[in-house]
Design brief:
The protein is 34% helix and 29% strand. By secondary structure, the protein is α/β, with parallel strands linked by helices. The chain has a 9-stranded mixed sheet with strand order 14-13-12-11-7-10-9-8-15. The chain has a 6-stranded parallel sheet with strand order 3-2-1-4-5-6.
Length: 333
C-alpha cells in the first residue's frame, strides 16, 4: 500500500523527541503536514523535520485534502474539539492520551467519529511494545499464578509554570498526564476493571494541579493495584505484578527506549530469569498499526472502549481525591 500522509496538529516537543525519528523508518506513514497557530513556528518545524506542508492554523491543515489522517498531541482540553473537527473533515485521528478530560468526553468523541465514519484511537504506545505483549502472555498462562497485586510508580520533575502539564485549566496534573498509564497498565495486567478506588493527592499551591497522587484500585476478590505518580519528583518508572505463584517486573514500562531490548524479570517456583524482547520502537509500531487499520477500514488495535474505561477510573480517582472516601467506578454504557 502507498504510505498514508500524516498531519500533525501542533509543534509538539513530544512528537519531535519521540516520534519524528522513528517515523523515518515507516513504510506505511509519510509525515506530510504540520500546523501551529504560529505560521513561523510551523514553517521552521516543517523545514527541520521534512514536512511538505506547514500551516498557520489547525483548521487549515484539516482542510488539506491530501492529509490522510491526523495525530493530535494538543493539550488535553483540546482533544475533543479537534477530534470532532478532524472527523468533520473526514480524517481519522490518533489522539494522545488521555482521550478527553473525562469518560463523558471520550464517549462523545467515540460516538461522533462513529457517526462520521472515521477511526479514532487513544495513543497508548506502550501497549505495542513486545515487552508488554510478553508480560500479558505470562499472566495469561499463569506463569506467576493468579495476579493478586500490581504496583506502579511514574514520575518526572517539571516546575515550569508555562508547561501544559502544570496548567489546571488545560487538564494538567499527575493523574491525567501519567496516572492514566498506571491505571491502564494495572487494568491490562489484571484483565478486568476495578470496582472502587481511593486516592490521596498533594497539590501545588500555585499551579493547583496534583503533583503527587497515590491510589488504591480494588478489583474485587482481594485483588488490588496501588500506584504513585508525581510531577515534581525524581524521574522514575516501574511496574511490578505479584501473583500466587511468582512475580514479574518491567524495568522501563512506559518510555521504553527504541534501541535496546525490553527487559522483564520473572520469578516463580522454578527460579528467577531475565526475559528480553526484541529491539523495536513502540511509536513506529503504533503509527504503523493505526495506518494499517485505516487502510483496512478498521478496527483499531486498541478499542475505544478501553479509553472510556480508563477515564472512568480516572474520574473515580478525582472524585475520591475530592471526597476523601472510596468511590465506585462507573460502568459506561
Amino acid at each position: 500500500m502507498d504510505r498514508l500522509r500524516l498531519g500533525v496538529l501542533g509543534c509538539s516537543s513530544h512528537y519531535f523527541k519521540r516520534v519524528a525519528v522513528p517515523l523515518r523508518e515507516s513504510i506505511l506513514v509519510e509525515p506530510y503536514a504540520i500546523a501551529s497557530r504560529d505560521q513561523g513556528k510551523a514553517t521552521k518545524a516543517a523545514a527541520n523535520w521534512d514536512f511538505t506542508k506547514a500551516y498557520g492554523s489547525y483548521e487549515d491543515l484539516l482542510a488539506d485534502p491530501d492529509v490522510d489522517f491526523v495525530y493530535n498531541p494538543l493539550p488535553n482540553h483540546m482533544h475533543l474539539e479537534f477530534i470532532k473537527k478532524a472527523a468533520d473533515a473526514g480524517k481519522s485521528t490518533l489522539c494522545e492520551k488521555p482521550l478527553g478530560l473525562n469518560a463523558r468526553e471520550a464517549i462523545e468523541a467515540a460516538e461522533y467519529c462513529r457517526k462520521k465514519g472515521v477511526l479514532l484511537m487513544e495513543a497508548f504506545m506502550y501497549r505495542f511494545h513486545p515487552q508488554w505483549r510478553r508480560a500479558h502472555d505470562l499472566v495469561e498462562c499463569a506463569d506467576i499464578g493468579k495476579v493478586q497485586a500490581v504496583q506502579g510508580w511514574f514520575s518526572f520533575n517539571n516546575t515550569d509554570p508555562q508547561n501544559i502539564r502544570n496548567i489546571a485549566d488545560f487538564g494538567g496534573g499527575a493523574l491525567l498526564d501519567i496516572g492514566c498509564y498506571t491505571v491502564s497498565s494495572a487494568r491490562f495486567l489484571m484483565g478486568s476493571e476495578p470496582e472502587q478506588v481511593i486516592c490521596l493527592v498533594e497539590r501545588d499551591p500555585v499551579f493547583k494541579t496534583d503533583i503527587l497522587s497515590s491510589a488504591i484500585l480494588d478489583f474485587g476478590g482481594g485483588r488490588r493495584a496501588v500506584f504513585t505518580v508525581g510531577t515534581q519528583s525524581f524521574p522514575m518508572q516501574r511496574v511490578d505484578a505479584y501473583g500466587t505463584g511468582g512475580s514479574l517486573s518491567i524495568e522501563v514500562p512506559f518510555n521504553m527506549f527504541g534501541d535496546v531490548p525490553g527487559r522483564l524479570t520473572v520469578i516463580n517456583s522454578v527460579g528467577k530469569r531475565l526475559v528480553e524482547t526484541e529491539i523495536v520502537d513502540q511509536y513506529l509500531l503504533q503509527f504503523d498499526a493505526f495506518a494499517q487499520a485505516i487502510a483496512e477500514g478498521g478496527p483499531v488495535p486498541t478499542p475505544l472502549g478501553d479509553a472510556v474505561a480508563n477515564l472512568a477510573v480516572l474520574d473515580a480517582l478525582a472524585a475520591s481525591a475530592a471526597s476523601g472516601k472510596w468511590e465506585q467506578v462507573a460502568r459506561p454504557a
